[in-house]
Amino acid sequence: MDLGIKGKVALVAASSKGIGKAIAFALADEGVNLSIFSRSKEEIERTASEIRTRFPVDVLASTADVTNKEQVDRVIEETVKTLGGIDILINNAGGPPFGFFEDFESPDWQSALELNLLSGIYLAKKIVPLMKQKSWGRIVNITSIAVKQPIDGLILSNTSRAGLIGFSKTLSNELAEYNILVNNICPGRIYTDRIKALAEKRAAQANIKYEKAIEEMEKDIPLQRIGTPEELAALACFLASEKASYMTGTTIQVDGGLLRGLF
Fold this sequence. Notes:
By secondary structure, the protein is an alpha/beta fold. The protein has two domains: 9-190 and 227-254, NAD(P)-binding Rossmann-like Domain (Rossmann fold, 3-Layer(aba) Sandwich); 191-226, no CATH class. Helix content is 48%, strand content 14%. It contains eight helices and seven strands. It has helices at residues 18-29, 41-54, 69-83, 106-134, 155-175, 193-206, 210-219, 229-239; strands at 9-13, 33-38, 59-63, 88-91, 137-142, 180-187, 251-254. Strands 3-2-1-4-5-6-7 form a seven-stranded parallel beta sheet, with helices on both faces. The longest helix has 29 residues, at 106-134.
């Protein structure tokens, strides 16, 4: 299927590995030119090299932290100068630490909000005017299944990511007249470094092997397995495309059936 986005420009945050990297690859496969960034210069340049080797697209690789406004501004400016604009924004960031309410103090809460809420708001604030100029844009936020079904031990993530959903729904209504669509994806258990870390923690707590901890995490998933970043990337690519032209304000989980609720 031709998704109608060949030649568009996408900014993909936190894209040196995991979900962000998989989305960048999926977009490149559709002919989308890319601006990718992460905190690791070595990893983001390696990812850019891999994309250039496989796909005939332009790739700008930058080093930046989504919580650092000056660094984000630099990435956006370089993207516009080098690639001519930004049509697609993939808001993606790592998750805050595991823990419970009494484990955290005010700085922890502030850091979580900056990472999973305020960074997305700031990127949108800077990029939406560019999209308005073309009367076309796609914003896809990568959140967590926790926004629909809070997860024990992830109180920082449960709180900060839920705020992004409220922001996105409101923004989707405000931007609809400009043909700028805003949607959210909620990963369930996707095999990334974060899932690996959670499995390692569970293995240590239960005094079991890592492989056993992974098996335990798969048991309550109807599909009986942990998903891959590429499976989630397929949805992100669709939501970023012309084919998703009548979808905005949605929040869709990619979880193998893990969520038990109706919505």
